[in-house]
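Form 7-S
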Amino acid sequence: MVRPLPMRSAAHVMTLAFVVACLAASCLVTFAQSSPLDALRESDPALSYPVAQYAMDPALKQLWLSALDSPEVDMQRMAAETIARSQEVNSSNLVEAVPSLERILEAKASHPAARFAAARALIVLDSRDSSGKLLEASKSYGSDLRLLIEPALAEWDYEPARAVWLGRLSEQASRRRELILAVRGLGVVRERKALNPLLEIINDSRRHPDVRFEAATAVGQISATGLETQAEKLARSPGTPTSLNRLCAIQMLLTHETAAAAQLLSEWANDDEPLIAATAMRRLNALDSALMLSLAESALKHPDARIRSEGIESCIMHPTTDKTAALGRLLADPDPALREKTREGLLRLSSVAELKPVVNDVVKGHLQSDDWKGQEQAAILAGGIDLEEVANRLVELLESPRVEVKSASAWALRKVAVKETIPAILQIAKNQTELRKAGTGTVVDEQVAHLLETLGVLKATEAIPLLKEYIPKHYPMGVQSRSAAIWALGVMPREEADAELEDALMDRILDFADRPPEMPEVKQMSAISLARMKSTSQAERLRGLAVNVPLSVELGVALRWAVKELTGEELPPPTPVPVPAEDWFLVPLQ
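Output:
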């Protein structure tokens, strides 16, 4: 008989809050938030770099094996931890360590810290043949070891572990965290014998909320059919807390793809509790995003970001002109992840002929608005769809008080590449340069770099004097701006050689002073631009540097590319600098 718990105790409320927080986290938008504002100089020209390999002294392995056999606890522990770390960072072949690790794992006299480290090393080494010994150790040597070992046994689907987990479900004395371990393991391996015991746990309101929630998740993993009636009954149960009942009901249908499951999820998607509604909508979108169509537009207006995210998903998957226009409003959403998700969705939809005008209108509307969030995303989208007609507005937004809008507008101007914007871009770049020289005002290095690249793309030869100002080593000019200016000089059309310019760029490559050092990006762009300028007079010096001077891999690659462009000679690729795997605790004497 399970002892009833006070339903309104502080511990119970806190545990329920933990369950809700965990599920809420799972419903958050996971859209990648990497910057879309690429620098053209990073991809033009396309250079191939050799992959650096981790350097590992072969003698290390024997040292670590010897340390495992040491009677010293710390030596055993540190050797086992080091073996695990080496496997993680270097995929080292350390299977010879398995017997010693197993010995530490099994020995009654082993210190708990050494045993734990040995178990972890066996798991990291993917030593599935050690599963039996790991299971026995987990049963004999404490809860902490079980927390480490049992998830690995579930991942490996080690059959004997199932009996242990099934037995734990019926043990009245099972600790909560170990019961959860068993529930999770049975869910991962989809053990059908666990179905009825798990359903009993789910329906027992005296159980801790986190145990019930985990049981519902496991049931949803195990069974893909037949739980609709039980889930509906649970969701309608008046037992406290009703919100947990509905969450568990949704989890029970985790893999159900039936019409009955879809009908229940559609009902729960209208729940007054945002977490319930968002969780149901997420499952509906995964099951069939068309099931969300009737809810999509209202979801876009919901105050909860998780619900808006599901509305965005449905509108992207099943677009219409009305839904695309509604989706466009979320370019200025308060949540940055949702703004980016919306922008990427509209970019995809712009390839659909009947939706392209709608997307264009969305972009123009946000660019004319006063909301910096919408301006930033609309500028990026304008560049992505090459919307030339907004070029003048993008120029105006270069003077925005928001850094995000400044940089996005500059980048977009490079993408749309409208020649008529050259005078305005050049003037703003000059103004920014003067501010830098005077040391006054705020200059955004990224924005200026995009503007200078834009002048290069537009072949704006009138900008050459300005670009040359960025060649000297002067750090306030900004490393991004300097490397962009030098890249732009390389793509400018020219009728005759400019010996002074070529010498200045060569000086940047040859600047190995350590106070202050020339920036690697500047050196690399200088080599590339010399090649594009057809500076054959510098070819031999570039070759000499590439062959005879120890350089960074990046500069070595750029120099070799330049030599090939100038002479046709293909030099052997640079040797990648070995990357030390770790500062290991035990290394051979030199």
